[in-house]
Write a structure and sequence with these properties.
The protein is an alpha+beta fold. The protein has one domain. The protein is built from 12 helices and 6 strands. The strands form 2 sheets. Strands 1-2-6-3 form a 4-stranded antiparallel β-sheet. A two-stranded antiparallel ribbon has the order 4-5. Helix 2 runs parallel beside helix 6 and helix 4 packs across helix 6. Bound molecules: iron/sulfur cluster (2 copies). The site of one iron/sulfur cluster (SF4) has 10 residues, from helix 10 and helix 11.
């Protein structure tokens, strides 16, 4: 960390066991490679399907995420790229505080619902991407702008409907727009910037480090503003920023004594244990992380069964109220 303070996320790992996670171990990748399931989404539409309109909306919602090459790359492909190489100057902010304040304001205008900053802890970087390519950041990319995009509460409350699935897809497309534009902004000022969605690094520990929330029983980031009803993206940069401070209670204070998400999970994928532990359930879990056990295989099997993604553990979660009552006390 070069003298920079490790973020809060490092409290929840056993450094003797934990290793950078290989993204090829995610359930999405392993299922695609080993069983041929590459999608839970229906690709051929039946005009007689009573859900045709909802299905079309749910697929269309992913358009920007799936097709915008500027969204999640450090160098934008093709003509849409504004900055080829580095500009011949570098804009100088008066201080890291001014840079952070500006970055927060700009991120908000690009669509961020929450923004935090953290020194990069390289333990959160994937060891390899799904393509097998080793993940490395340039030495100078020491900071991350971590951003959350809110998803609509009313739409998400209909999970596991196609309306909720469409809102999830819109969340991913908003991530692409936000991360791409934020990275381009920093590059135009002469800084290195790599725009990322779920690629390059785990997003939740980075968001915990950036003070945006804490990981809950449902394996998601719990925020005081929106609970887990957010999507995350980030930009790695060499612009010096200021470490955000986490004011969140410990995960046990929020989730011990609450099993609402586990009860809402039709797949039985979430633990009802009172306390987090070091157990892993499947190859998709990274050893050496203190958390409530989560079985992504059961979760994904349920998605395959219903033919869409599920957000029951997002919709049901009362984290906003639980965090709010703890922060007041
Ligand atoms: S997304 Fe649905 S199936 Fe997966 S853990 Fe959450 S509630 Fe369970
Ligand atoms: S539903 Fe309850 S236990 Fe589950 S993540 Fe939310 S607050 Fe934690």
């Amino acid at each position: 960390m070069d003298g920079r303070t490790p973020g809060r996320g490092s409290r929840y790992i056993d450094p003797g066991v934990h290793r950078r996670f290989d993204r090829r171990m995610t359930v999405f990748h392993r299922r695609a490679v080993y069983t041929g399931f590459d999608s839970y989404s229906q690709e051929r539409f039946d005009p007689a399907d009573p859900e045709l309109l909802e299905l079309a909306e749910a697929r269309a919602a992913w358009l920007l995420h799936d097709n915008y090459p500027g969204g999640f790359r450090d160098s934008i492909v093709g003509d849409c790229r504004l900055v080829h190489g580095r500009p011949p100057f570098r804009f100088r902010f008066h201080s890291p505080e001014e840079a952070a304040s500006n970055a927060r304001d700009v991120a908000e205008r690009f669509g961020a619902s929450l923004t935090g900053f953290t020194a990069v802890d390289s333990r959160w970087l994937y060891s390899r991407e799904r393509s097998g390519t080793p993940v490395e950041l340039p030495e100078e990319a020491k900071w991350a702008v971590v951003m959350a995009v809110e998803m609509d509460r009313d739409l998400m409350s209909t999970s596991p409907s196609l309306r909720a699935a469409a809102e999830s897809g819109r969340g991913y497309s908003r991530m692409a727009s936000l991360a791409g534009a934020m990275g381009e902004y920093l590059r135009l000022l002469g800084y290195y910037a790599r725009s990322c969605g779920n690629d390059t690094s785990l997003s939740i520990p980075l968001a915990v480090d950036a003070g945006l929330g804490i990981m809950g029983r449902n394996g998601l980031l719990l925020t005081s503003e929106f609970g887990p009803r957010v999507r995350l993206c980030k930009v790695f940069t060499d612009l010096q920023l200021v470490q955000s401070v986490s004011e969140y209670p410990e995960p046990e204070e929020i989730c011990s004594g609450c099993t609402v998400c586990a009860e809402a999970c039709e797949a039985g994928a979430l633990s009802r244990d009172d306390r987090p532990c070091w157990d892993t359930l499947t190859g998709s879990n990274n050893p050496g992380v203190l958390r409530w056990p989560f079985d992504p295989e059961k979760c994904f099997d349920y998605w395959l069964k219903i033919g869409r993604d599920c957000s029951n553990c997002i919709a049901a979660c009362p984290a906003v109220a639980r965090i709010g009552s703890l922060q007041k006390s």
